[in-house]
């Protein structure tokens, strides 16, 4: 992959899943939203190798397009808290309007960020601080996907003056 390749070009299709011994099929589908190309690419590769189908996006707008294309297949939103132009919390809320039972896991290198703190107080929200290990990522993803779906009340954005 060339360094000039954009995140959008990288993830027009799901990241190819590598089969490990004994894995017959892809498990759940994850929408990974991360603005740092290297972090997104490595995280997607790890998840793909673990048997997950991964759709990636660099921004919230890109994530909405991908979700609408593949929304019925996405079981987990894995998003950075801080995104260009918005934040992961607002993205999660908007996606839950389309799919109320969507499981969400936030990642962030800024645990003291006010959005991160507020997001972590919501029921059914999971968090993994950056940097994370392959083991901790896979363990947390399994935990989130195995958790019972919690219906999180969705509050629509109010019109701004």
What does this protein structure show overall?
- This protein is of the alpha/beta class and about 160 residues long.
- It is about 35% helix and about 20% strand.
- The strands form 2 sheets. It has a 5-stranded parallel beta sheet with strand order 2-1-3-6-7, sandwiched between helices. A two-stranded antiparallel sheet has the order 4-5.
- β4 and β5 form a beta hairpin.
- The longest helix has 13 residues.
- The protein starts with 6 loop residues before the first helix and ends in a 15-residue tail after the last helix.
Q: Which properties best describe this structure?
A:
161 residues; alpha/beta; five-stranded parallel β-sheet; two-stranded antiparallel sheet; 7 strands; globular
On the 0 to 100 scale, the average pLDDT is: 79
* Distance, first to last CA: 45 Å
Largest sheet: 5 strands, parallel
Low-confidence spans = 1-22
Walk across the major sheet and give the strand order.
2-1-3-6-7
Radius of gyration: 15 Å
String of helices and strands: HEHEHEEEHEHEH
Q: Given the C-alpha coordinates, what overall shape results?
A: globular
Structural class determined from secondary elements: alpha/beta
Task: Tell me the number of helical segments per DSSP (H or I, 4 or more residues long).
Answer: 6
Report the helical percentage.
25-40%
Estimated share of beta-strand residues: 15-25%
Total count of strands: 7
């Amino acid at each position: 992959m060339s360094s000039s390749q954009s995140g959008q070009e990288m993830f027009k299709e799901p990241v190819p899943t590598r089969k490990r011994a004994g894995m017959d099929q892809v498990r759940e589908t994850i929408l990974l939203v991360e603005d740092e190309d290297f972090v997104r690419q490595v995280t997607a590769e790890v998840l793909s190798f673990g048997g997950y189908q991964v759709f990636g996006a660099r921004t919230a707008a890109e994530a909405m397009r991908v979700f609408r294309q593949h929304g019925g297949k996405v079981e987990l939103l894995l998003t950075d808290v801080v995104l260009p132009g918005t934040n992961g919390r607002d993205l999660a809320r908007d996606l839950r309007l389309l799919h109320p039972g969507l499981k969400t896991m936030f990642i962030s290198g800024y645990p003291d960020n006010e959005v991160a703190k507020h997001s972590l107080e919501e029921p059914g929200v999971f968090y993994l601080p950056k940097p994370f290990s392959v083991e901790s990522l896979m363990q947390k993803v399994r935990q989130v996907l195995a958790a019972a779906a919690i219906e999180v009340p969705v509050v629509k954005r109010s019109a701004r003056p």
